[in-house]
Amino acid sequence: MAVSNMMRYALGAAVGIAGLGATLPASAVTVMASEGESTLANHTIAYVLTERYWAVYENKDSKVDCPDGMNDGPREQFKKLFPNDGKKRTVMETQLAREGYQWHPTTTPEGFPFKEVQSKVSYGLNLDGKVGQNDFAGPDGEQGIDNQLYRVIGCIANYRTAGTIYHFENEFMRRYDNDRVIIELTGVDSLKNDPDVTVTTYRGLDGLLTDATGTNAIPGGTQRIDMRWGKDYIQKLKGKIVDGVLITEPVDRIEIPWGVTFNTSGYQVFRGMRLKLKLTPQAAEGVLAGYVDVDSFTYHLNTSWSTHHHSYGQLSSPSEYRAMRRLADGYPDPKTGANTAISSAVTVKFAQVFARHPPDSNTLVTRN
Amino acid sequence: MRRFRGRLAVALIATSACMAARADVSNAQYWQAPGSSDREDYIHEPFPPGVQIVQTELDGPVYADGSGHTLYHWQLKNLRNGDTGDRKKSGTSACTNEVYKETSGMQSPYPPGFLLPELDTRPSCDKLWPPYVAPDDAKPVGKWTIITRKDGAKQWVYDDYPVYTSSLDHQKGDVLGGTKIEKAGGSGVVRTPIGPPPNVPPELKVEAFGTGHMLVDHKGYSVYYSDADSPGKSNCDAKCQAQWKPVVASDTATARGEWSIVVLPSGIKQWAFRKHPLYTYIPDLHARTLVGSDVPGWHNVYTQRALPPPKEFTIQDSRIGQVLADSHGKTIYLYNCTDDALDQQACDNPDSPQEYRLAVCGNGDAKVCRDLFPYVIAKAGDKSASPLWTVMAIDPNTGHRAAMNRADALQVWAYRERPVYTYANDRRAGDADGDAFGEFNGYRNGFKAFWLRDDFLDNAYRR
Questions:
Q1: B231 has a chain A CB within 8 A of its CB
Q2: B317: contact with A, CB 8 A cutoff
Q3: One domain, residues B113 and B59
Q4: Which value does ipTM take for this structure?
Q5: Which domain holds residue B295?
Q6: Would you say B463 and B190 are in contact if contact means Cβ atoms under 8 Å apart?
């Protein structure tokens, strides 16, 4: 086992060196890529998450998506609620009232209109197997795409490509190791076609392997699997590989580490999550889709990003919560019947990695 | 139901067994025994008559006035929309007798000009932080100099910043106005206790953790000692040295105080602290970790640590490390608060305005607040070995301090005279989901878990 790992590490180093070489001739890179076939060893291959964005389909003209413009954020709403009219107000009835409202959101109607995205096209998957009137079409024309979260966040600047959350949630994911997401595929006979594979999610403990710029993740790194603090992130999914695309069955509930910065270590909760990833020996790329839990999503937003940061991208957390509740389309509460989760998609990229399990991790345990 | 939500669980370890194994906090690695004589040594530097050095449990040696009241700085810090505090070498104090009535707007995104709470009783900065007054005939000594305040009073200055006492400190050894633990980015402009520099070699530094003063090397990497070594002698052979790197002393280094020199067979000099040869752990990926202490027989090194918390408390594994928890395994939370006035008054203790806390944890409703972040109720007669932990009477409806004998008061555990809390939505032992609840990730007006260990981030040494 140790020898095998050493060989893997040596190969990883070789691939890594190839990745360093923006200046290497294309033929050299090709040779290295073909060697990468042996990254599938013992019917196992692992990947580490290197990119992660909430899937927001943006037409070239944002007026197509958001004909009425972007939604207001905390600053804009605050100014409308408390105009500079010379009236003396207390911090309790203004700033603290807005903070309290944010930390205890409700579905009670508010005075601000919410602008839903108007695009008919969205990234994502058909989660319920149906084609409904509220569904989107995929960029490739596939019908029945379920991504009601896009309808909510598509006209919130923070989530679009110029937005703070769009940029920094990805950057911080790459920077902080508590966000290191590993998927390990086992029982794999071929990366082209295999009717039965197992995908296990873990948290890794190590930084991403990058090229010499320090920003571009490359395959061949090594990740130690976190079996001590990361037990909550271990999850097993069944899947298949069809024409080089991994498709997993939905898993009822999964938590994915999603810390940001400022010493936060939050996570997202997905229901019915599944992966659709195009696989190569060096990378996996595609969509993580499922129903994101509305309460957890809002709580994550508030604990990970301050109102100050929400303001950067005109993101009103209470307004977003209200819209999410209204458009939630999955996992009804058994008591109230109200949907608790909303269909969503995350575009993801992974780089091949060598997963190193601790020697005593054959018996997996979770915090109870 | 959440317990069986489809995780891979080939073998389950019952929570109760885990908690039982972690129930006793008294022998934990984080604290020193009540009888321990470990105290941080310091460099003796000249100071004015009337100043004294007081050894304190959490913050080590601090300067104090003649009555034992700890001395503090209020150093300039930038907030999102401006800065406040004392400027180095400015010759003036920014803490005056002015009573600020309105918010400053320095804490984005909210504009300035809103009336502050409890204005009829709001004190001025210099009432909360009385300047440490120098006599008219005072003379500068060492790092201590003198400025003249606007009212003509002389004020001591240490290391180019004006010096204050805190109205929160009542007796010798109290350090309730602030700590040496560095504040995190989202916090207000807080006050910090001052003290003589720690007596450590130039290759090393002292880092103020949540439970003690840890030694790190000049790059911030943790320093360790081994049970396998003999006093003043390293038994770390070549195999050991593949993982453990001696902390090298310069050729000219000499023993001093608790510091001695071990000469290795190669002739290299190695620092030893309290006769323990010191090492760094080569596999440490991050600075200031406890990872090396997971290796049997190896330990992080502290100049001093706090005493154990209440006996009923426990230590629990969480997602990024370990947290302090109550007897049921529920994570303990500390509440942080600084207001948005120019003098940045603290609102984190029960003698300060409660409107901030009630807004974030209860949307202004005290009951909602109590239900979401319940106080940690103490039993009658509870005491802790550590003076940092006390039982406090709290008015449940106002959140203010109550008379101890008041019938409807809650008897709650307090840390540094601030009540501690649990979070209702933490379902399992070790959950710390209430961490970062509140403004600016819980640092400005909100809750942070009592992190004891954090293998990924800075929570164990930033508050």
A1: no
A2: yes
A3: yes
A4: 0.93
A5: 211-305
A6: no
